[in-house]
Specification:
heterodimer, A: 493 residues, alpha/beta, Aspartate Aminotransferase, domain 2, 3 domains, B: alpha/beta, Aspartate Aminotransferase, domain 1, 15 strands, globular
Chain lengths: 493, 451
Amino acid sequence: MNNVYYGKLVFELSKPGRVGYSLPQCEVEGYALTDLPEGLRRQSATILPECDELTVVRHYTNMSNNNFGVDTGFYPLGSCTMKYNPKINEEMAALQDFNIHPAVPAEYAQGALRVYDEVQAMLSEIAGLSRFTLNPYAGAHGELTGLMVISTYHRQRGDVARTKIIVPDSAHGTNPASAAVAGFQIVQVKSTADGTVDVEDLKPLLGPDIAGMMMTNPNTLGIFETKIPEIARLVHECGGLMYYDGANLNPMLGVCRPGDMGFDVMHINLHKTFSTPHGGGGPGSGPVGVREGLEHCLPNPQVVKNEETGLYELVADEQSLGSVSGYLGNFAIIIRAFAYLLSLGKENIPLAGKLSVLNANYIKECLRSHYKLPIDGLCKHEFVFDGLKDEYAGDHHDADHVTTLDVAKRLLDYGFHAPTIYFPLLFHEAMMIEPTETESKDTLDAFIEVMKTIAEEAKADKQLLKTAPHSTPIRRLDDVKAVKEPKFTFKAL
Amino acid sequence: MYKYFPHTAEDVQQMLDVIGVKSLDDLYAEIPEELKLHRELNLPSAKSELEVRQIIEGVAYDNQNFACFAGCGVYDHYTPSVVPFLAGRSEFSTSYTPYQAEISQGTLQYIFEYQTMMADLTGLDISNASMYDGTTATAEAMLMCVAAAKKRNRVLISGTFLPNVLRVVETYAKFHGVDLVVVPADANGHMDKAVAQQLIEADDVAGLIVAQPNRYGLIEDFSGLADLCHAHKALFAINTVASALAVLRTPGEWGADIACGDGQSLGIPMGYGGPYIGYLCTTNALVRKMPGRLVGATTDANGQRAFVLTMQAREQHIRREKATSNICTAQGFMCLYVASYLSLMGPKGVQEVNEQSYAHAHYLRDRLLETGVFEEVFPGQPFLNEFTVRYTGTEDLRGQLLDSRFLFGVPTEGMENCLTLACTEKTPKALVDYLIEHINYFLESPEEENV
């Protein structure tokens, strides 16, 4: 990354008369937009910039130099699974033969439909479930779709009293938010001191109004919920279904499957577990899987292979929950996941999970001398520190007490992305670290060394951390000003 | 080891020693044995990069490429090579949501540019950067109407929406408990404004959502609707095909409170349905009801202008079940597509794309009518680059054209023998003429003879 800040906006590079495009001459004469009634036409000019091609290329290239990605450095961002994004996947997704209109009749789109169905089948095997839809566009969209599956299941049984979803207090924020959008009320279940679901707190919550329970396992603290068989049994006994938030699926690959743990419905984040790039926050892909007996609830359109003709068909099932997408989801993301699954194969998929667990435990053991580890024992793919130990951070009541935010900002100076901070909400100074399997011991050692150096810096010179970062393209930002004097467009500047 | 895993055997051993366990499997010691798989996954074996390429190229070959006269929300516009080239920069594509603003100014800045462009194109104050596609953006617009109205639960939606948009909005409404009422079309293929008016005057409507151009390609006249909605405390939302915003009366100019739609037509490849980006714009007054990510301008400790994710108190990671939406995505990568496309095209480029698409579509309409086997379904109604015709012949013309690699429109759902056809700058006169030649040929020679 370049530490010389490039902060211009494209509108500031515009000069009247410049063009950055070329189109063929239009050979059709006698038709003009001015033939449309004036009242239907745009009244105002646009703000779009006038730039030549090189100006545009240089502009965005300079901007990219102000950006940090997995390809530039280590991204220990907990809950986000920032693994390497293989390049062959990109090339396969860009194949011109896949760039077809989504209304192309199924018989002419057999290649695309085959990719869809094969990914669907592979995810089903990995998850221990019966069938997946790949239509949901993102993880939270998958959650919403999965909750609609649960709601549809109960409605079709005529059981309309099930209006509540149980969510652990350690859950990802999307869980309760998705349940609310799906029309459910949210009931929170507490965690025990070891960070897992408190079964005794759960029991009295269960009843005829419970539609289901959402969990991720391992949970957001990276702890495997060993009581999952009992929890699943209790929820099933009360008539509810179990939903698995697949955000933390990576460490479970080939070792322990959500279907075998007792879950009925789940989503997978292809952009986490299956290596598709995060793209600055999207697009993702959130396939939803269900156990046998729930397949008909999945959203339309559905891809079905006609065993007689051997051709894939697009089907709309009347019992389906409805549609959640315009077409068949983020298809170009699905191709990338297909390439990843083929590349790793059955031999390497389980290894990905195991090495991610190895990396997480290694960092945890190496840094527990300097950072507070609230929950001991083996973690899975990620773990949570509760900030620096007091001997480094200083007194909690002092104004110059070094916080998790300060450590995170100082890490940027050393060329590392920060961990996820202040989540989960169970710990005040939470620092959630997930290294993934694609990072080497050398990288982890360098990170560990820096984290220890920062702890020593905190002891020696608190202001150095309070004012960090120092060597990034820009300095710490005024978040309050962004809210108090909101400016969302160039015109508002 | 494997090419994506950097661990040597020695590394693994040293790390296991530090952790204090004997093997990788021991890292899972706490998991009850009965929950473990204890067998190999039933999946294909690992493939080399060369094999992966061969397999996927082989599968892709089973798709047919067409000269595209289909639209219905997805348009075959030309994407300049600069756009995918810049999007391919992995400093952009391999980054996460820009939480750490000091090392994410690239992402934050292009999102800010995107927000500026979409707010300007729609004629509204602000834009978010978070919607998956046009169908879900329209559903979010519906949820915004209900959230803003507080005690009203009824939303009206035009029956002239594309069926696949309606289906998604209906699904969200069903589960969220929104009373969604579809306002039927009139004889001209426009939303029946009289019916809408009657419903709005009942004073229990949270919002009205309309489509532009509509499912038949027609440009609707929304005069009076904004005032009507506002007089009865309802919000007015317009879904417009993004590329058309550059030339059609904008949602802001119609007096809308919310603009939503699909951004695919602004440089994003058709890609068999995704990824695209949904846009959602609104007025300053409604910012706190807006779902999804918002980038704002601020300054850093040196007083330098910089950009940051802001107004996060609306969002799921802070507000959980009380958030404006469950959206977590920042559709960053697609914002980059749109921002770089619009930067290249500029005001003249977007105008010219629309001019050409308009001219080609009207030329195609006229040539089809000349064949004698097509009639206009809504004669005299203005359209931009898409229109609906009825085929009066008996041959399976569309099937024959598909076999000749023409994607000849999309069958108009619910209307027998009707097709909705679209043109872009990529369907020039020569291609239209070639299509008409094929049509005339098929009409003159029965199917058996033209094998």
